[in-house]
Write a structure and sequence with these properties.
This protein is mostly helical and 442 residues long. Helices cover 72% and strands 1% of the residues. The chain has 15 helices and 2 strands. Helix 1 packs antiparallel against helix 7 and helix 12 runs antiparallel to helix 13. The longest helix has 31 residues. The protein is globular and about 50 Å long. The chain starts with 14 loop residues before the first strand and ends in a 17-residue tail after the last helix.
C-alpha cells in the first residue's frame, strides 16, 4: 500500500513434475495467489494490533460520552471529536520519519507505553473530579499523537512481514481486527463501563496498551529499515504522493470522503442520544452497528476487488457509504439508523482496505512509513475539519443537516472521480507501468 500495481489475476499456471499445466489449471497442491499462511511474524504484529485496538475501542465508546458530560454544546463535543484526528495534521510527517528511521517494533512499543501512562493520568483526573473541557481536549490530542506514531509504524511494517501476493489479505486482517476491536467490541464495553464508573474504561485502555507491547520483542530485527535509508528527508512521503499522479488522485478521493465522514462523526453522539433514542449506556452498541458492517467489508474487500476490479469497487464503496448517510438522516429511531450505519460501515471497511493496498503496491519499501504517514496526515487531517464544520452546521440547521450534506456530497464526489481514476489506474486498479518520478512530474 514488488510495487507494480495490484494483482487481480486468477490462479497462475505452472508445472507439475515435467508436465505443463494448462490454462485455468493449478499445480497439484498449490494455493490460489495470496491464500498461503501469513506467518508467525505477522501473527505477532497482529496480536499487538488487536490488543491496542481493543484499548482504543474502550476510549472510542467512552470519550464522546465524557465530552457530552463535560460540555453538551455541539461545538464543544465536535471539538473533542476533532481533537482525536487533528494530530495527523501536526505529527504525521515526523511519525512517518520515525517509522522509516528506527526499528518499527521499537517505535510501536514506545508509543503505546506512553499512551498507557496517559490513560492512567486521565483516569486519575476523573477519580478526583478534576477534568474540564480543556484538559479533555489536551488528553485526546496527546493520545491521538501517540496513536499516529504507532499506526504509521504498523502500516509500514506489514509489507515487511508478508509476501507481496498476500498483502491485500493481510491488510484485510488488520482492518477487520480494527473494526471488530476498536469499533465493535471495544465501544460496547467502553460505554457500558463508563455508565458504571467514568474512570474504568480508561484504566482498561491503559492495561490494553501496556499488554500490546508484550508481543513486540519477537519482531526485533524483523522490522528494521536499511541503515542507508535512515537519513532520507521527512518530506519524502509528501513529495512521493504529489509527484505520482496516481497517488495524487487517489489521496484526493479518500481525503474528500474522510472529510465528509467527519461531518457525521462530529455530531453522531448527539443525534444518536437526542433524536434516535439511544441511551448513554447503549451508545457503544449503536457505534457497534457501524462496525458490524465494517468487519465483513474489510474481510471481503480482497474478494470484492478481484471480482469487480479495485477501482470500480472503491468508487462503489464511496457511493454506497453516501447513501447510508442519507438513510441515517431520514431515520427517526435507532433501529433504521443503526441498519443504515451498518451499510455505511460495510462500504467504508471495504474501501479502506482497497485504497490501502493500492497505495502500498505503488510505494517502495524504504518510503513506506513516510508515505503512509503523509497519506494519513492528509486523509485523517480532513476529518477534524469536517467535525468542526459539523458543529456549526448543527447549530445553524439542526443535528441532521451534517448527515444530509455528507451523504449528498459523498455520492457526488464518487461520481466525479470515477472516470479520472478509471483512466489512470484501469478498472482493476493495475494501471500502467509506474512513471518516472521527478520534481517536475505532473
Amino acid at each position: 500500500m514488488g510495487e507494480d500495481g495490484l494483482s487481480d489475476a486468477g490462479p497462475s499456471s505452472g508445472t507439475v513434475g515435467t508436465g505443463p499445466v494448462g490454462p485455468g489449471q493449478r499445480a497439484l497442491g498449490s494455493r490460489p495467489a495470496g491464500r498461503g499462511p501469513l506467518g508467525r511474524r505477522f501473527a505477532q504484529l497482529w496480536t499487538c494490533f488487536a490488543l491496542a485496538s481493543a484499548g482504543d475501542g474502550f476510549a472510542y465508546g467512552a470519550v464522546p460520552l465524557l465530552a457530552v458530560a463535560v460540555d453538551p454544546h455541539p461545538l464543544a463535543v465536535s471539538a473533542v471529536i476533532a481533537a482525536d484526528r487533528l494530530p495527523w495534521l501536526l505529527v504525521a510527517l515526523p511519525a512517518g520519519s520515525f517509522a522509516d528511521r528506527f526499528e518499527r517494533s521499537r517505535v510501536m512499543a514506545a508509543a503505546n507505553g506512553l499512551r498507557a501512562v496517559l490513560f492512567v493520568l486521565l483516569a486519575v483526573l476523573l477519580l478526583t473530579h478534576s477534568i474540564d473541557l480543556a484538559l479533555l481536549i489536551l488528553g485526546v490530542l496527546a493520545n491521538a499523537s501517540g496513536r499516529a506514531i504507532y499506526y504509521s509504524a504498523v502500516q509500514a511494517a506489514v509489507p515487511q512481514l508478508v509476501p507481496a501476493e498476500a498483502l491485500a489479505r493481510a491488510n484485510g486482517r488488520i482492518s477487520g481486527t480494527e473494526a471488530a476491536a476498536e469499533h465493535l467490541g471495544g465501544p460496547i464495553v467502553g460505554s457500558f463501563t463508563f455508565a458504571l464508573s467514568r474512570a474504568v474504561p480508561f484504566l482498561m485502555d491503559a492495561a490494553a496498551m501496556a499488554s500490546s507491547i508484550l508481543p513486540l520483542p519477537g519482531l526485533r530485527g524483523e522490522t528494521r529499515v536499511p541503515e542507508s535509508k535512515s537519513s532520507a528527508s521527512v518530506l519524502a512521503g509528501v513529495r512521493r504522493i504529489f509527484a505520482d499522479r496516481r497517488l495524487r488522485l487517489l489521496v484526493g478521493l479518500i481525503a474528500g470522503l474522510a472529510g465528509l465522514q467527519g461531518l457525521v462523526s462530529g455530531i453522531l453522539v448527539l443525534v444518536a442520544t437526542r433524536d434516535w433514542g439511544v441511551h448513554a449506556g447503549g451508545y457503544g452498541l449503536f457505534v457497534a452497528a457501524g462496525a458490524a458492517g465494517n468487519l465483513p467489508g474489510a474481510l471481503l474487500a480482497d474478494r470484492i476487488a478481484r471480482r469487480l476490479g479495485s477501482v470500480v469497487a472503491l468508487i462503489l464503496s464511496g457511493g454506497v457509504a453516501g447513501l447510508g448517510y442519507l438513510l441515517m438522516a431520514g431515520s427517526h429511531s435507532w433501529l433504521p439508523a443503526g441498519a443504515s450505519f451498518a451499510l455505511t460501515g460495510f462500504a467504508v471497511g471495504a474501501g479502506v482496505v482497497i485504497a490501502t493496498t493500492i497505495r502500498q503496491r505503488l510505494v517502495p519499501a524504504e518510503l513506506m512509513g513516510r508515505v503512509s504517514a503523509a497519506w494519513r496526515g492528509i486523509v485523517w487531517g480532513a476529518i477534524p475539519a469536517g467535525s468542526l464544520v459539523a458543529g456549526g452546521l448543527a447549530v445553524l440547521g439542526g443535528l441532521r443537516l451534517p448527515l444530509l450534506v455528507a451523504g449528498g456530497a459523498q455520492i457526488a464526489l464518487a461520481i466525479a472521480l470515477a472516470l479520472p481514476l478509471t483512466r489512470i489506474l484501469g478498472p482493476k486498479g493495475t494501471g500502467a507501468e509506474p512513471e518516472p518520478l521527478s520534481e517536475g512530474s505532473p
